[in-house]
Each structure stands twice: as structure tokens, then as C-alpha cells.
Amino acid sequence: MVKRVVTGNYAAAFAAMLAKVDVIAAYPITPQTFIVEHLSEFVNDGLLDSAFMRCESEHSAMSACVAASATGVRTYTATASQGLALMHEVLFIAGSAHLPVVMPVVNRTVAGPIGIWAEHNDTMPQRDCGWMQVYVEDNQEVMDMTIQAFKIAEDKRVLLPIMVCLDAFILSHTVEPVDFPEQDKVDKFLPPYRPDHAVLDPKDPMIIGSFSPPEYIQEVRYQTDETMRNALEVVEEVNAEWAKEFGRDYGGLIEEYKTDGADAILITLGTVTSTARDIVDEYRAAGKKVGLVKLRFFRPYPTEAIRKVASKCKAIGVYDRAVSFSAGGPSWIEARNALYGYTIPVINVLAGLGGRDVTEPDIRLMFDKVLEAAEKGEAENEIVWIGTRGVKP
Amino acid sequence: MDRHQGGETIAITIKTLPKEELFTSGHTACGGCGSPIVVRAAMKILGENTVTYFPACCLLVFGGTYPHNAFKVPYLHVLFENSAVCAAGIKHALNKQGKEDVNVVAFAGDGGTGDIGFQALSGAAERNEDILYICYDNEAYMNTGIQRSGSTPFGAWTTTTPAGTKIGGKELFKKDLPKIMMAHNVPYVATASVGHPADMIRKIEKAKNMKGFRYLQIFAPCPTGWRMDTSKTVEVAKKAVNSGMWTLFEMEDGVVTLNVKPKMEPVDDYLKMQGRFRHLTDEQIKIIQGWAYKKNEMDLKFVEAFSEDKKE
To answer: Which of A246, B121, B218, B235 has the least CB density, counted as fewest CB within 10 Å?
Structure first.
């Protein structure tokens, strides 16, 4: 295995090359641009034998991916923020027609006001489109999960599209050492995509996207729901296989850190997890019983895994880098739904919106709030905004 | 029987159109609808080695609501405004699988082509995607209930340009989409009409046998939306050409040819056959007549400027 120091965007692009994607359709948007630039270099240097459609918009890029995937080939695109919002309409088609498109999304603020830094308000509102979503913590995970994403998405029990969500700039533009998997090992792990459910071929005509009356659509919805639930198992299987072949185990749906014996557990996702892990070490050294859960998959949502975590602690805090106005952070809303009937406090800590840095003091405050709730058995405020000018946390 | 025209081989005529129907009877289009005339002929010419794409339009609905289907070839529907890029995505995926010989065609109405679908259309044309795009122009959003589009002509009644007491019909003119497409410098752009089937068939076949982006805009009356006799579709389409309301021309590799010289018959006869123009005042008819003359003058100048003998 070769170790190289690369950006998250380079890792995302290189993973597509290792996956030998057939059709790429993309449109540039900050901070995703390096992904399409690197892919263009790979194609123009003859390293990657893909049809590369440089489309005139993200709407068209996703449309091209959907059409190409429906014709039976492996497809890839990447976007961010407004680009994802523009794709919104098309995303549903990939989900309902079972088209396993793989798409890194560089999580960026959605306007307004316009901003380009890390926020999850682009991907989280897409949760109901029938796409899986995995949030990653570092550039190695960008590389590994982009390759795993194809395997999970193309599994016959799943056949759903997937977003690999990486934080803007913190990963996309920051270099880190990354182990580059060898091509022959990736080929063995990820065989060519050979679907039989979606192949437009005159020799065996099939219709995809027929106008459908109510007699048929509810079953389509059920199937998407069922296959999304199937993905819970497939994610764990693929993680285990990856760990065996490449030596890196991400824990599957969630990763637990020092949760055993913890009174207060914080659930994070994305890059904030790394800082939170350090604070757990610091607090544990000081005798404070805290633990950490890195939520990796937001869709499918790991309800059972979250319940198991809750059953061994006294309070949970859920970190969000997005907000559903008047209702709380999306990740917290999901956790509370999963934990209906549990009596422990589950509080929401919101920080880092619009790309504001989430610092060590911010995370200490998060743990302090959860520890306080664990001690009292209740929380003063269920939703806590951290580091907001003029707002007491 | 082959015959030559302009140096190319034209194998198919009305008499020799294949008997086999790839777009079959049993579809549910309204009586007199122009669009199935286009689709039926095109499918006969394109043949079974074809993949098709439709946006959300009349054709998607009347071509077969699940589990029914009038097509014997595969088709994909994704959305309304992305026909051109979806067809291109299909083509690239076929090529990657070594199926380069498959024809990929998108059929779409005028709204899905020139209004909401224009960005994807223009992008696909700029990239010279190897697809055939056929727009059936019925001059309004018919599937949703006869709302005005950019292709609706001046004065026409639609449900969003009603014949009111203050404003009578559409106040704006038809978008000149064929010339906009010609400005993209793609291998082939042509207009056609269901009223001139021989010309239409020739153009579809020519487009089929070319590579790169090919665009056909075919005038296809909608008796339901145009409030006209369902038996007069072809007659109305002929009158549109004869009165200069619709021009039949084509651009191939930058050379423009006028296919039918407009007789410039008064527009009155054309307008009178259609209920959508029933409310027109004499003044409005005069404006339409003026528009037809001006369009004709501009079209002839355009054809002259890009004619074969002007080519270096």
C-alpha cells in the first residue's frame, strides 16, 4: 500500500478511478471543484477510461448519471451545497428506480446568506430522497468509504444511490496522509457492476419511469423503504470485508469510543468527531465518565445501534451542524425518534453552522451539558446553541 | 427503392415506410393529435435498435400508463426538463458497453424543449451529444391543460392567456427555437410538419444516419388545445406552412436549405379553422399577418446568407 499526502477531494476523485466508473457527469462548485478537476486530469492523461460529461448544471449532471445508470453502467458525480439543492428533484428518481449512483458531497453552507464553509444543511434536507448518506471524519475515510459506497449501493439487496459526505475545506482542501489501496485488491473487493433490473437495451426492451397510477406507487415506496432497511446489514458486512482486506475497521453504521462505563455520551458526525475524541480522553483522564459515538450513516438510520448505546448511559447529547427551524437539529430529531420510550435526557447541541470553527472549549461545553443532564436526570434546555453571539448556551 | 437527393441516399419514402409498428395502436392520444403521427413515423424509420426518452408530456401518458405500453423499444422517463441530457447519458452508457450502433432519440413537446428544457437542450447541443432530439411543437402546454408556452403564437387563446374583455389571448410572439438551435452549430437542425409527411420522413431518416447532435422541430397540431376539428390536423398543418406561419427549412453542416417556398396565403384561412383564434379582432389578425410577412422575409434572408453557394 502506498501512502500519499492528499486532500479529501483528491481522495474522492482517486477512489472513483479505483472503482473504474463508466460514466462521470459533473458540474463544478466550490468546494467540490478539485474533484472534477482531478477526474478531468485522470481522463485526459489516459489513466481513467470513463465517459466524462462536463454538464451545464448539477441538475443535468445528476440527470445524466440517472440515465446512464438506468442503461446499466457504474456512474459517479460529486457536488456541494447549492449544487445538491439544484439536484434535489432528480435525486428522487435515482432512489425510486434503484439506481446505485455514488456521489461525494462536500458539505457546504446553503444560502442565504451565501457562504462556502462546512455545514450539513445541504445533505440533511435530502434525507427522504431514497439516498443513503455516510458522514466521514478524515481523508482516509473519504477514500475508503467512496470505494465501499459502490459495494454497498450495488448490493442486490440494496440497489440505492449513496452520498459520501465530507466537510468543506476541513477535509476537501486539507492534506492528510492517506493509504492508497492497490488496484488489484480494489478490483477483487469491487467486481464490475452487472445489473439486471435496470438495463436499457433494444435487445431486451424495458421501461424505466413509466407513468404510474396509485395502484402501483405505494409498493414502489415500500420497496425503497425495505431496501434502505436492508442496507443496515449490508453496511456492516461491507465494513467487515473492508477491515479484513484493507485493515481499517470503521465500525459500520456507528463507531463507539469509550462508551463503556460512560454516563454521558455525545453523538457527533463528520470532522467534529476528531476533536471530540480528544476531549473524551482529556475528561476520562480527569475521571469524568464521558463517551463518544460517531454517527456514520444518517440513512439508513441505525436505530438499533443508537438504542444499544442509550441503554448503557444516563444522558445523551447529539451534535448537529444543521438545523430544522423550530424543531432542532436533524440528527437530534432522528436520535430522539429512535429513543422514544427511553427515559434518559437526550439534548441537542448546535455548533459550527455556516462553517464556524467548533473548538475544544465548545466541545467541553457540550460534554458539560450532557454530564449535567446525566447527573440531574433532566436537562434545563433541550436545544443548546453553542458559540452563538448574544445567545446563552 | 433508393433515390438520391442532395448527394445523400434516401431509402425510405411514404410508400416504403416499414410496415412494422414499433409505436403501436392502443395508445390513448386524443383524436386528431399530431404527435403520434410524428412518433409512429419516427419509430418506423429509426427501427427496433433504438432507445427512447420522454419527459413528462402528453406522450408519456398516452404512450402507456403502467402497466400498459405502446412502445416495442425501451424507454426511459426521468423528469420534465432534462430530456436532452438524459438521452445523452443513455448514449454514453451504451457506448461504454460497446453498443455504439443503438439510436438514442428523445421526443418532447415545445414547453419541455424550448422553455423549461432549454438549458439541458442547449448544453447537450454545445457538447454535440450524439443523439436525435425530436420536438413535437403543438404550441402550448397541452398535457397540463392548454397553458401558454414560449412556442404559443401571438393572439392564441390558452387557459393562461384567456380571451378576456381587456386582453384577448397571448400578447407575445412565438419563440424562434429552430434558429436558436441552428446558432449552436450542430450537425443538423430541421423543421418539419405533419402536413408535409414526405419532407418529415426524409428529414427523420437523414437525421438518423448522421452523428452528433441532431434537432428536429415538427409542427404537430393539437385539436383539443387548438379547438379545431379533429379531422383537419393535416390540413391545418399544411395551411401553417402555406401562410408562412411555419417555415420548412434545414441546416446541415452550416448550410441552410429552404424546403418548401411559402406561398404566403393570407393567414385568415389558417386562423379561422381554429377556435383558439376565434376571438381575434381585425387588428390582431393584421398583427399576425404582419408577423408572418416579417418572419418570411427574415427566413428567406437567413436561407440566402447560409446557402450552399455562399459556403467557402
So the answer is: B235
